[in-house]
TrEMBL record:
Coiled coil: none annotated. SUPFAM superfamilies: Phosphoglycerate mutase-like. It comes from Limosilactobacillus portuensis. InterPro entries: His_Pase_superF_clade-1 (IPR013078), His_PPase_superfam (IPR029033), Phosphoglycerate_Mutase (IPR051695). It comes from the Bacteria. Keywords: Hydrolase. The keyword Hydrolase applies. Transmembrane segments: none annotated. This is Histidine phosphatase family protein.
Length: 219
């Protein structure tokens, strides 16, 4: 069994632009975000994919729709919405200023950005620290995140052998996947809006072929 998957980060939203925490909360795509989606659609036009999934959050769904509209080589019209591919839920910190939250969670350790914390602690410990700092106890820790995300990977592995799929997901989620499955990934660099991560899934392996690319690299 081998399944090829292209994970795409959604286009820029207004909360991205304003450096606000955006997990399960949502915001419209900016003009740049619309262009991000169209650009990745053109980039993926060289790939014959059989399925397109998106998280059920509107920024991912709308990115997927724009991606499909910009790809002249696909007959697919609508993404399959899969909640397993949602962004991490930040609980109490949803909508808060990202820099302020980074200072709350990591400031006393010398970390002032999420990239610094991800690089220093790893993405799973970062989730756990955010969850611990949430006074309401709503933010997802690593265990809850992976219980959800692994259901999405199970769904991908259930596709027919040799299928090719696109999944429109989210920045922290994609960075977490790369952190788990790509040795030596630079956690100081967040996946860009409209970037692509290619993966190969088999019965026994989960492999990242490339990460955080704006185009399909030439072989």
């Amino acid at each position: 069994m081998a399944i090829t998957v292209y994970f795409v980060r959604h286009g820029q939203t207004y909360l991205n632009r304003y450096n606000r925490m955006q997990g399960w909360s949502d915001a419209p795509l900016t003009e740049k975000g619309i262009e991000d989606a169209k650009r990745v659609g053109r980039a993926l036009s060289k790939v014959k994919f059989d399925y397109i999934f998106s998280s059920d959050l509107s920024r991912a769904v709308n990115t997927a729709r724009l991606l499909l509209a910009a790809d002249p080589n696909t007959d697919l019209k609508e993404p399959i919405q899969e909640p397993a591919f949602r962004e991490i839920f930040f609980g109490f910190f949803e909508g808060a200023n990202g820099g302020a939250v980074a200072d709350i969670v990591g400031g006393k350790y010398g970390y002032h950005t999420f990239s610094q914390m991800a690089a220093g602690w790893g993405t799973d410990e970062l989730k756990d620290r955010i969850a611990k700092a949430d006074q309401y106890g709503d933010a997802e820790d690593a265990e809850r995140f992976w219980q959800r995300m692994d259901k999405g990977f199970d769904r991908l592995r259930s596709l027919p052998d040799n299928s090719v799929a696109v999944v429109v997901s989210h920045g922290a989620a994609i960075r977490s996947i790369a952190d788990r499955y790509l040795e030596g990934v630079d956690q100081n660099v967040s996946p860009r809006n409209g970037s692509i991560m290619k993966m190969t899934l088999t019965d026994t392996d989960t492999h990242v072929d490339f990460y955080n690319q704006l185009h399909i690299p030439d072989k």
